[in-house]
Each structure stands twice: as structure tokens, then as C-alpha cells.
Amino acid sequence: MGHPDLQLVLSFKGVLELRDSEELVRVRLGARSLDPLAVRLAVDSQDGTANWVFARDLLVRGLHECAGEGSVQVRPCPHPSRRAMLDVVLEGGDGFARLLLPRGPVTHFLDSSDAFTHGELSQELLVKDLAAELADILSPEGGQDPFGED
Questions:
Q1: Total domain count for the chain?
Q2: Which of 17, 101, 141, 145 is most buried when burial is the number of CB atoms within 10 A of its CB?
Q3: 51-76 confidence digits (pLDDT tens)
Q4: Whole-angstrom Cα distance, residue 3 to residue 96?
Q5: Of residues 93, 112, 94, 81, the one with CA closest to residue 12
Q6: pLDDT tens digits, residue range 79-109?
Q7: Which residue did the predictor score with more confidence, 34 or 63?
Q8: What 3-state class would DSSP assign to 79?
């Protein structure tokens, strides 16, 4: 019997900077108990919704220092007038976008989703997932010897 996939989604406003324009956008941060190390980010702009999935740890580290080297980079906002914001750079096939997120809701999201990554639920899921993976590796498929011996 599998565990339910518990989800947490927090919605708030952020600022999307594209080229020479700024747009107030709806941002959703999501976490799932079956994937506790990932964060889902959805940005609803005039052009539609863009979705990103990246390591939760990147967001945690980005609250205090520059984090990320790939398509998602997070850091405290360097502008003195925007100290209460996080600076998130998202790179994709069409170029890059800069997203300014208020630190308060991001911190609240991380605190609220902490149970997924550090709680008993995540440890129980991890142990069951490892046990299932091990069982798949060790059990021969269809009764055949995994090493090809009879």
C-alpha cells in the first residue's frame, strides 16, 4: 500500500523582469511528500505559465548566499532598496528571466514544507523506496537469473 502524495502550495506576488520591463506576477511554490527534495515554481505572467523544478536546497541556501550554477540561480537581492527580496535567475531556451520574490513568503514556504524533508514521513518514504529499489535489483525478472546463469 503506497503513501498518499501530500502537497503544499503557497501562492504570492513577485516581480518578473524580462529585458527592459517589469511585471507583477503570481508565483506558486510547491512541495510534494513523494519528492521531498524538490521545489516546484510556477510563474503566471501575461504570456502564460512557466514551470520550474529544482532542488529545495538551492532555495534554502539562496536565502543567505549565492546558490546555483545551472538554469536556476538564487541569491539575496543585492540592491539596498530590495533587501527583503530574493533574486532568482531562470535560464531557458528562450533566454533568461529575473524573478524577485519576497523573502517572507519563501521562508514561510520552506518552514511549512520542512516536515516533508526532515519529518518521519520523509524518512519512512525513503526507507520504503530504498527497500523497493533493492527488492527490484535483487529479484530476478520473470524467474530468470540476473547474471544469465542457469
A1: 1
A2: 101
A3: 999 999 999 999 999 999 888 999 99
A4: 37
A5: 112
A6: 878 888 999 998 877 778 899 999 999 999 9
A7: 63
A8: coil
In a domain, 25, yes or no: yes
Distances (CA, A) of 89 to 92, 123, 142: 10, 32, 48
What pTM did the predictor assign? 0.72
Query: Residue with C-alpha cell 538564487?
Result: 74
For residue 36, give the C-alpha cell. 521531498
- Give the domain extent around 17: 7-139
Q: Is residue 1 assigned to a domain?
A: no
Residue 58: other Cβ atoms inside 10 A: 18
| Residue at 150 is within a domain | no
In the prediction, which pLDDT does 140 show?
61
Across the chain, what does the average pLDDT equal?
Answer: 80
- The sheet carrying 48-55 orders its strands as 48-55, 35-45, 21-32, 7-18, 95-102, 85-92, 72-76
- 99 in any annotated domain: yes
CATH number, domain with residue 135: 2.30.31.20
